[in-house]
Amino acid sequence: MGNRSVPRPSFFLVLPDRALPEELGVRTGGIPVLARHHSGRPWLLGTMPRKQLTIHAEGQRRLALLGTTTATCHDLGRVCDRSRDIADLARVSNRFAGAYHVVGSFDGRVYAQGSASGMHRVYHVVMDGIRVIGDRMDVLAELGSLPVDDTAVAMRLVRGLPHPLSDVPLWSGVSAVAAHDCLMVETDGRGWATRTWWRRPPPELSRAEGAAELRSALAEAVRARTADGLVTCDLSGGLDSTPVCYFAARSPSGVIVKTSYNNDPGGRQDLLWARRALPVMPGVRDHVVESTDTMPDFYGGLLEVIDRVDEPTQSLFCAPRIGHQLRYDASHGVRTHLNGLGGDQVLCGSASWDHALFARKPLPAWRRARALHVTDGHSPWATLRALCDRSDYRAWSARIIRNAAAAAPGGTRAMLCGWALAPRFPSWLSAAAKDMLSEAMLRTMRDADPIGADRAEHHELSEIRDAARMVRGSAQLGARFGVSHEAPLLDDRVVEACLAVRREERVTPVEWKPLMKAAMRGLLPDAFLRRVTKTGGGEQLMRGFRAHRRDVLTLCESSGLDESGWIDMAEFTAAATPTELELPDTSLNEAVNLALFIRGSLDVSRNIQWNSR
């Protein structure tokens, strides 16, 4: 495994303004310097593309945005002039569209912040007594020679981990900064503190008001990515990718749009709806139509995936298809690929809204909840019991973890109007692993606090950040091709525009994504906005699984998962046996993602020459 060629990651590090201990200086010495403190000492190190770095430097102050943004160096200079203290940088993200990290150096003190959605994360470690900040766990762990946390890694086999379990770093000694917090480090590199920089907006806007905000925010989010030239964009004909395509088509450089289809029942619906939207997009340079038969199958090509990411996500399962897209982009000189990921999470909200509404307006809440629950076969008694449950987050979490470990039916009930979706322990998890993980999960959740004021706020933020985790992974995959894989719908300003709308107006049980329809009315054709269907990929999934089931088992073996003690291989093999009528067990995806992560990020020799090109 050590001889496999793993692509060099794109990353950055932030150092304090002080002389480094000799060992730390040696470890970081080969990494390119992106910017320096006023003193001349290295401040920003890394391998990320220079085009993703916007920086202002004057006197004792430095401010940089790392990512995609509408901000200019001059804009950042005005921010520095108006900031009294480094803590004032928490307001930077309120001013500029895009998705980026904020990093500052004021009089030797260092500031670092990611994005509220979780697309851009901040981590830190202590090396030789000095706190070093970075955007990737794996890079920090490698520089610090930190050991893998086996329990944290094994926990990623559990589907639907509740917050904060999904954010537990996979290496001992690496600390994660919450997405809504920023990190400040003193000049000595030892003193440090975190503080909250982001709070969700109160849901006070009407749908009409929110639609105007969403339209403006999405247009700016796309503009932040189209300023540098031609882009490609997925066009599924849905209410996520189509608005993104519309705004991309307004850019001077235009856009290449891509639509896929298949010959399964309903498999050409996306193409039909995409063509209905195209007449209002004169900036489309080319509409590339591709059959899914020309793409890697689901579960196909997994044995060739060697990408290095810093956590296992669904992006790894999708890596062969993502690579197929980005390879096309790179061959056509395109450096940015836009998608509609995150749309479901920001536009559809959480069914747990009904739980919060029930305390104030029980009858409307009951009607909304029943409209959702009856289609899933839940009884009126189950709905009432869920609406009346007042368990706090810690008590609820303890109950669903115990239910999941015991495979108890109470786990299903907990999902109705719960704080989040209930975690699911796979049937093939070994008894020892189940005991180890349930104990570790319960221990962590004893002190856990929700990230929202009620179940709905917590649930929908958790879903948004789960989507961002996958998008972050796909962005790390894109670095190998030199193409940025971007999801404008998960930009903080776009997320805020959606969250600011009154819940009952943002989502209704009787209309699909009414807020986006309102935002795009008058821009996209009325006939297009009447779409109520969404194409699934069930048939493709079943075909791919039947064709490549052996690859799933090989992946488990080649990664060492079969000898980890975490998996009951007899049960795993049974779960990985396809049937004619059922979709593959979704828990297998967690195993695939973890196996690919182990092969690409844990089980290879990584003596990387950082300054090699």
In short:
This protein has 613 residues and is an alpha+beta fold. Helix content is 40%, strand content 15%.
Give a quick set of tags describing it.
613 residues; alpha+beta; Glutamine Phosphoribosylpyrophosphate, subunit 1, domain 1; Rossmann fold; 6-stranded antiparallel sheet; 40% helix; globular
Please tell me the total number of domains.
Answer: 4
CATH class of the largest domain: Alpha Beta
* Rg value: 24 Å
Instruction: Provide the structure class.
Output: alpha+beta
- Architecture of the largest domain, CATH level 2? 3-Layer(aba) Sandwich
Number of strands: 17
The shape, in one word, is globular
Distance between the termini: 23 Å
Strand order of the main beta sheet, please?
2-3-1-9-8-10
CATH topology of the largest domain: Rossmann fold
Overall average pLDDT: 91
Residue stretches low in confidence (pLDDT < 50, at least 5 long) are 409-414, 604-613
Strand content: 5-15%
CATH homologous superfamily grouping of the largest domain: HUPs
In which range does the helix fraction lie?
Answer: 25-40%
